[in-house]
Amino acid sequence: MSILVYHFVCPAKYRRAVIDEKVDQILKEVCLEIAQRYQVEFLEIGTDKDHVHFLIQSVPTYSPTKIITMIKSLTAREVFARVPSVKKQLWGGEFWTDGYYVGTVGQHVTEEVIRQYVKNQGQETEYKQLHVQQLKLF
After folding, report:
1. pTM across the whole model
2. Domains of the chain, CATH where assigned
3. Is the separation of the CB atoms in 111 and 7 below 8 Å?
4. ∠ at Cα 118 (59, 128), nearest 5°?
5. Nearest one of 28, 26, 63, 23 to 45, comparing CA atoms
6. Mean pLDDT in residue range 23-45
7. Nearest-CA neighbor of 65 among 33, 30, 121, 73?
8. Using a CB cutoff of 8 Å and minimum separation of 24, what contacts does 16-23 make?
9. How confident is residue 133, by pLDDT bands cut at 50, 70 and 90?
């Protein structure tokens, strides 16, 4: 069976800065539970104040849409249940924006490059380094 590796980026609704240490911890705990129940492995999870990066390995039977829909649904429910103040900051009742970014790890951007980028979220130099590395590959 083949394995696919995806890089997802999910912004919080209205791009609000609602991801603090407590929300970060909840997101990671829920993702560990998801990994135990489904054929999804979280290689890295990197949070910034208003968005989250996930480096995920999964089987081809799960589409990227299925994977991210499951993650967004389960994490949002738990964050709202455990930290009700977050729901008040996001008056629409949704934690995540409707959209997301997904990219596959492939020929020009290796898993290690993405892994380091996701791991070092919140550190501005990592953003610059990733783009410099990508430019060198082409």
Report:
1. 0.78
2. 4-137 (3.30.70.1290)
3. no
4. 135
5. 28
6. 97
7. 73
8. 16/50, 16/89, 16/90, 17/49, 17/50, 18/49, 18/50, 18/86, 18/89, 18/90, 18/95, 19/47, 19/48, 19/49, 19/50, 19/51, 19/52, 20/49, 22/82, 22/83, 23/47, 23/79, 23/83, 23/86
9. very low
